[in-house]
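Researcher: Next entry in the queue.
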Amino acid sequence: MCRTVTRGQARFMNDIKGLIRLSALAWLAVGLVIAVYVEIVNAGAVDPLATTFSEYVHVGQGARLVGVAMLAVGFGALTIAGGVRLSGAVWAARLVALFGVGLCVLAVFPQEPMDQPLTWHGAIHRYAALAAFTALPLAGLLLGEVRRLSYAALAALGVFVATFLVDARGVSGGAERILLIFELALLVAFVRRGGFVMQPRATLSFVARTSFPCRDLARQRRTCGRSGCGDRGEPRFGA
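Model: Structure for this entry, 239 residues:
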């Protein structure tokens, strides 16, 4: 029997995405507030131009709060990935999820101080960060609505990586903070425009794809046509 897609189901899907949006913004806000607090309390103790945010784990209250800030942003990114996936952008959602997982890995494996040799956990931290900060702009390019911001984030990532390659660690902290601003802006842009806002037609199509027992869309339409779906004025898939 062909199942119809009602506007009530479409509204339900949009309500779910609204809850995801609210949860994602809450996680991002928690992470941002903690990060700003860490910056403020350590303002006189370290040089922010040379010290990356990850290195604050070795300074004062940063030992307790840096990882919490990373986890909060990571959880926010994973929530955003769920919202993007609901809108049908599978690969973009996977890349956003990769960013979220990467942030959680950064929290678990801390970076060593700048003046010490690279450790095994520092190597994990460094390459997980590279993967995460690359994945998020690529997700923006796939979504196609935040291309300029995505290109800016990739350029900032290139500058940040270059500070390690050309032995310019004296400005690594400043380059990293510019990169973090772009990455956070991308996350907010995803919540506002990158897949969370779904038009009614697209919402009905998504609900239909997840509701019909048939996998083949053409077969779904043929079945729907034979059984007279929508005879009571209800919307049909593809209508």
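Model: The chain has one domain: 12-198.
Researcher: Noted, moving on.
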